[in-house]
């Protein structure tokens, strides 16, 4: 995502997050004994689902026919995390209350952004943003987040960046993990972890089955150990179009003769493996991908074969393209772009969720000049029978802006939802 490429500013958001929350509502939290909210997909609604082997038998996933989602990024979380478990619980609970009060029912929350973990993991090192001592977490943020989200009736999708790792400084702190072994022994594991030219960040290479297995195992670990409702990845597939990034791996793949197709096949294998890993734990859990809204970019820059994933079984439950464009955009006008995505979602088991860019309200003229444009776009998705919801990027843009313009925009969004 465009805005998610920001780094290093996360710790500055704490004060903004704590002071910008909406007025506390009198709406009661949902408890274990509360009735299931309307339009919820549960096991009882699908006799096939009730016959599945479920490894996390104590939890029934909470998902909605129509997703009304908000992305909560690692940048947002860094401003909420605290040395105190109780303080973090209060901060994240307030965030979920804000999302619920707005009229939304789902959150995509970052739990792995840089080859790290916001939870207890046997595969990944703790995130640099999490309070820890000698690599041991002081508390488990993900356990707290799922508990608090469900109190407000929010479906919780664990958001991963499966391939992106970190800078050299933080890669050196991942000792004891598989990623560190690959990173520290490039002679033994050539290009398992690669760094594009003119970039400080390392990336996992999906060309290798061992890499794809690690990513899939990490998704299964989340599904089995935590009360999540889905797994979600975004548009960070290949970080570069440079041939040098993975030339050794490509050369070794003797059956491949087209670099672009080979890379797309690698990503498709990875997406399929994550899907299968999640479903192996509980077929009621959802798996979704949020690719770039510009269809061509997925093929020419990211090597993401979105048409394949939306037309064949075994890849997705939903796709949430980032249609962060205005109605008058010269390259990807909103209505036309949404229609293009509708046309490729032909697999009956894949739903379309429209990603909307709230952050554009302070970045582009059409969004700045057209008051209520996000609310209007939400209305368009709700009126479109081919859409199964929307997702708003991001929490920061929705709730940490205190100027009159953003307050009015949020008011119009809430009015549209309610």
Topology:
Layout: H1 14-19, E1 40-41, E2 63-64, E3 67-72, H2 74-80, H3 85-102, E4 106-112, E5 116-117, E6 125-126, E7 132-133, E8 136-137, H4 141-151, E9 155-160, H5 168-171, H6 178-184, E10 193-194, E11 203-204, H7 209-225, E12 230-233, H8 247-252, H9 259-281, E13 286-289, H10 295-302, H11 306-311, E14 318-319, H12 334-344, E15 351-352, E16 354-357, H13 365-369, H14 373-383, E17 389-393, H15 395-399, H16 404-417
Helix pairs in contact: 3-4, 7-9, 14-16
What does this structure look like?
The protein is of the alpha/beta class and 418 residues long. 38% of the residues lie in helices and 13% in strands. The chain has 16 helices and 17 strands. The protein has helices at 14-19, 74-80, 85-102, 141-151, 168-171, 178-184, 209-225, 247-252, 259-281, 295-302, 306-311, 334-344, 365-369, 373-383, 395-399, 404-417; strands spanning 40-41, 63-64, 67-72, 106-112, 116-117, 125-126, 132-133, 136-137, 155-160, 193-194, 203-204, 230-233, 286-289, 318-319, 351-352, 354-357, 389-393. It has a 9-stranded parallel beta sheet with strand order 15-14-13-12-9-4-3-17-16. Strand 7 and strand 8 (136-137) form a beta hairpin. Helix 7 runs parallel beside helix 9. The longest helix has 23 residues, at 259-281. It is globular and about 60 Å long.
